[in-house]
Amino acid sequence: MTTVILQLICPDRPGLVSEISGWIASNHGNIRHADHHTDGEASVFLSRLEWDLEGFKLPRELIEQEVYKLANRLEGKAHLHFSDHFSRVAIFVGKQSHCLLDLLWRVNNNEMEMEVPLVISNHMDLKKICDSFNVDYKYIPVDEENKSFVEKKILKILLDYKIDLIVLAKYMQILSSEFIQLFPNIINIHHSFLPAFKGAKPYHRAWKRGVKLIGATAHYVTDKLDDGPIIDQTIVHVSHRDEVNDLIRKGRDTERLALARALRFHLRRQVMVYRGKTAVFE
Amino acid sequence: MTTVILQLICPDRPGLVSEISGWIASNHGNIRHADHHTDGEASVFLSRLEWDLEGFKLPRELIEQEVYKLANRLEGKAHLHFSDHFSRVAIFVGKQSHCLLDLLWRVNNNEMEMEVPLVISNHMDLKKICDSFNVDYKYIPVDEENKSFVEKKILKILLDYKIDLIVLAKYMQILSSEFIQLFPNIINIHHSFLPAFKGAKPYHRAWKRGVKLIGATAHYVTDKLDDGPIIDQTIVHVSHRDEVNDLIRKGRDTERLALARALRFHLRRQVMVYRGKTAVFE
Amino acid sequence: MTTVILQLICPDRPGLVSEISGWIASNHGNIRHADHHTDGEASVFLSRLEWDLEGFKLPRELIEQEVYKLANRLEGKAHLHFSDHFSRVAIFVGKQSHCLLDLLWRVNNNEMEMEVPLVISNHMDLKKICDSFNVDYKYIPVDEENKSFVEKKILKILLDYKIDLIVLAKYMQILSSEFIQLFPNIINIHHSFLPAFKGAKPYHRAWKRGVKLIGATAHYVTDKLDDGPIIDQTIVHVSHRDEVNDLIRKGRDTERLALARALRFHLRRQVMVYRGKTAVFE
Amino acid sequence: MTTVILQLICPDRPGLVSEISGWIASNHGNIRHADHHTDGEASVFLSRLEWDLEGFKLPRELIEQEVYKLANRLEGKAHLHFSDHFSRVAIFVGKQSHCLLDLLWRVNNNEMEMEVPLVISNHMDLKKICDSFNVDYKYIPVDEENKSFVEKKILKILLDYKIDLIVLAKYMQILSSEFIQLFPNIINIHHSFLPAFKGAKPYHRAWKRGVKLIGATAHYVTDKLDDGPIIDQTIVHVSHRDEVNDLIRKGRDTERLALARALRFHLRRQVMVYRGKTAVFE
C-alpha cells in the first residue's frame, strides 16, 4: 500500500509535533511511522512522518503544495515522497563487480525501492553482468585531459535516462566540483572507516598501520573528498594473518553491506542531512 | 532539567499522534523525544513522549490525572514518569561480583537514573563491595525448605526500603510465582543468548555444543523461567581454544553490558512491553 | 604456489609438534602455517600444517603414504590436501537465490577454492542464474512418497559429476539418514543462531519470541537435524520495528556471509571436527 | 600449573618450527600452545610456544640461557616468560575511574596475571578506589614547567616498586620521549578508532564528523603520539540521537574492554611486535 513520506526540517519550538501531526490528522491520515529529532545545540527540529495515502483526504496531486505551505509556516524546508515512486538510479562502476551485482540482485529481489536503468563505467569489465540483468551499460573512458568533456557527456545521458540518484559503487574516479554542483544527489561507498584512511588505497594503508578492524563508509558526496555526510559504517575484524589481499577480500563483504544499507535508508527517505551529518531514522 | 515521560499503549486508529501531541502542545509542552510504534498485526499503538516540565502549563501534581483521562479516551493504558524521580532498586546477588560492581559504579558515575539502597544475597561474599559503596547488605540464606518463608521476609524488606524494582544480578535462585505476582517489576540477566540454553549451566552447554558465539540476555522476569520479554542481548565470539572457564570469563563482560544497557533503557522508560515482547525506543 | 596441507588428529602426548614438523623439515618443507590445538579434557591433539610443495623432497604422489605412516605411528588419523586440488561442489537450492548467487560470484571472483559444476533443486526458479554462470542445473522435484527414489537418483548424479562436497544453500528439504551415510560431506546453512530455533520457520519464531539479535549458523550435516558440528555463526541486530519479513531480509545477508565464511574455512582445510564440534584454524 | 612461554622472532627459513619444537621435545617439554606466523613480505618468522614446566628436563634457571643460544643460532631474538611470574604494573590515571576500577576488579577476580602495587595520578579523585583495593596511590601533579622533573621522580618510584609495565588508563598526559626511552614498556588506551581522531578530544571530533561507530584502541606507546603498535580495537554503534556526552558514556564501555583485552594478551605474552605492528596469538 502506498504511503506518503514527509521529511521536514525547521527551527525548533514547542508545538511542532502537534502542528505537523495535526495537519495529517485533519486530513484523516493514518500515521505508520513518526520520527523526530531535535538537535539541541543548533536548535533544529527534524521530522519524518509516513502515512497511508489511502483514506487521506487530500488528493495526491495537491499534497505537495499543502506540505510546502506547512513548511513555510514553520520557516522550514520539506521534502515529499510517495512510496510507489521508485527512484531511477545510475550506478557508476569500475572493474569490481561485488557492489554492482549485490545491488542488482537486491533490486530483482524487491529489497530496494529503485529502478536501475543505467550503469556507467570507464571499463568494459562489468558489461556482461549488466546484460544479464537487462541494464544499459555505457562505456565512457575518462582521463585527466578529457574529464570535463566526459562529465558533460555523462550529465547529458543522466538527463536522457531521467536519473534521480547516482551511486558510486567502486567507480574509483573523482567527480569534479562542477559535476557535483550540477548533480548533487550522489552516494559513494568508501573502503575505509572514515575519517581514517581518506583517499587512495585505504586497505594498503590499514594493513601497514596494523589496525585490528577495517571498515566501509557509505556517504553522500560533497566536493570535499571523502568528507560528505556519513549514512552508514560497517566493520570487520582482521588480524596479523591477513595480507593486503585478505583485507581487500574481507572489505568487499563489508562494503556491499554498508552501501546496500545506506541506499535502502536513502530510498525509504529515512535519512535527513543537516550540519554536514545525517539523522538516520532506522 | 526535569522532563515528563509518557508511555501510552492503546488500540491503533488514525489521529493518535496528533491527539496525544496536541494535548501536550495545548499545555505548551516542548517535546524532546517522540517515538511511536504500530504493531500492525495486533493493531496496537505504542507511544513514548518526553517533554520539558518547565513551561508546561499543568502543575506537576495534576498531570497524572489528565494523562489517565487521555488514556481512557483512547481506551488504552498510560504510564507517567518524571525524570527527576529516581527508581529505588534492590540488587539481588549470589557470589559473583561483576554485575553488582558494574551497576554500583555506574550509579556513582551518574550513568543510571536510580538509587541502590539495598543489596540482598544468600551469600556473604559481596558484602565488602556494598560496604565500600555504603549500600545496605542483607544476608538471607535460602533453601528449598524455607523458600516460602524467606520470600515473605524479603517482600517485607522491599516494602521497608520502598523498592520499586528488583535487579537479579546473578542471583542464581529461582523466585516463586507467588513472589513474582506480588512484586512483578524484576529484571534478570541470563547468561545465554535466549532462547538457547535456558536454565542452568548455559556456558557448559554452549561449550559442549561448540557454538562460535555466546551471549547474554537481559529480560523481565515472568513466572515461566527465562521466558520473559527480552530487553537487550549481547554476544561475544568464542573459539575452540576457549575452555568453559574462558566462556565464563568472556561471558562476564557481555553479561554486565547487556544488563546495564537494559536497565538504563528501563529507567529512562524507553522500554514498553506488549504481547510478551518489548519495544525499546533507543 | 601449491601448498601441502596436513590435518592430523591423534592422542595427546609430549613431542608431537616436534615429530610432525621434524618429518616436514627432514623433507625440506618450508612451513607456511602451523596450528595446533590440544583438547585437555579429551586428551586429543589436533594439528594443521601447511607447507610449500615446491622444494619438498618427497614427490607429490608419495606424500600421502608417508603421511599415513606418520599418522599410524601417532595412532591417529591424517587427512592430506593439495591447495591446487579444487573441490567439486554441488549446491542444492530451493527458491531463494541469495546464497547461490553469492557463492557463484565468489567462485568467479577466485575467492573460493572450488568448482561448482552442478546445482540441484526441487524448483525451477534458479535455473536462469545457473545458466548465466554456465553451471548445470538439475531440476529434481521431491515429495515424501518419492524421496527414497529421488535420493538414489541424486546420488547417481553426484557420482557422475565426481562431486566431493554438497552445500545446502537454502534447499529446505531434509535429507534422509541413508543419504547422509552414503554422502557424509555436507555443509548446511541454517537461518537461526543454533541451538536456538532448530527446525522450521526460525525467523517467525524469533520474531514471536521478540529476540534482539538474529543469527545464521553454517554447520556440517549429521543425521540429527540442525545438530551437526558448527563451523561459523553470524548475527544481526533487530528491533521491534522489524516485521517477520524484515527478519527474513536481514537474515539473508547474515546467512550468505556465514555460509561463505564456513565454506572457505572448509575448502582451505582450516576446519577439523572432533567430539561433535569443530576447531577452526582461522 | 606453571608453563614456560617462549617468544621468538628471526629471519624466515625452512625448518624453524621443527628446530624450535625439536629443542623443546628433546627436553621432554609437553607443548600446550604453538603459534607461528610468517610475514612473507619481510621474510620474518614469529613464534610463540608454551609448554609445561613440570617434566621439562632443563631446570628452570637454565632455560633462559639455552633459549638465548637457540635464538642466536637462528639469528633472532627470544623472550622467555614463566606463567607464574606476575608482572608488576603501575596504572597511571587522571580523573576517570572506569578503566582503573575495571582492571583492579579483574586482578581481584584472578582474570589478569599481574599485580598492581601502584597507581600514579596528577589528581586526587581516584585515591579512594585505590585505598579500598589496598593499592598505593601517588599523587603527582604535573604541568609543562615541571614535567621533566616530575618524570624523573616517577621513574625513581617505578624503580622502587620494581614496576615492569605501565598502563596509561586515561592518564591524559603525554609522556616525554626521554621517559619512553627509559621506560619503554607502556600500554595506552586511546578513545578513538585509530588512526582516526588521533590526539585530543576524539569524541567531540567524532560527534562533529557524524560517524556511526566510535571505537577505542589499546596500543603500545612510542614517542610518536597515538602511533604505536595497535594491540586491540573495539567499537560501539552511535546514532544522531547521541550527544557528545553519550559518546563519552558509550566510549567508556568500549575503552575498558579494549584495554583489558589488550593487557591480558600482553600479560599472557600473546603479543609480538614487529615492523610497528603486532601479531596477537589469540
Could you explain the architecture of this structure?
The structure is a homotetramer of 282-residue chains. With 282 residues, chain A is an alpha/beta fold. Chain A has 2 domains: 3-82, Alpha-Beta Plaits (2-Layer Sandwich); 87-280, Rossmann fold (3-Layer(aba) Sandwich), CATH 3.40.50.170. Helix content of chain A is 33%, strand content 30%. Chain A contains 8 helices and 13 strands. Chain A has helices at residues 16-26, 60-73, 98-108, 127-132, 147-160, 177-182, 202-209, 244-267; strands at residues 3-11, 31-39, 44-52, 77-82, 87-93, 114-121, 136-139, 165-168, 186-190, 213-220, 230-237, 271-274, 277-280. In chain A, strands 7-6-5-8-9-10-11 form a 7-stranded mixed beta sheet. A 4-stranded antiparallel beta sheet of chain A has the order 2-3-1-4, with helices on one face. A two-stranded antiparallel sheet of chain A has the order 12-13. The first copy, chain A, is globular and about 60 Å long. The model of chain A has no long low-confidence stretch (mean pLDDT 96). Chains A and D meet through strand 11 and strand 13 of A and strand 11 and strand 13 of D.
What's the structural blueprint in terms of helices and strands?
4 copies of one chain form a homotetramer.
Chain A: E1 3-11, H1 16-26, E2 31-39, E3 44-52, H2 60-73, E4 77-82, E5 87-93, H3 98-108, E6 114-121, H4 127-132, E7 136-139, H5 147-160, E8 165-168, H6 177-182, E9 186-190, H7 202-209, E10 213-220, E11 230-237, H8 244-267, E12 271-274, E13 277-280
Parallel strand pairs in A: 5-6, 5-8, 6-7, 8-9
Antiparallel strand pairs in A: 1-3, 1-4, 2-3, 9-10, 10-11, 12-13
Helix pairs in contact in A: 3-8
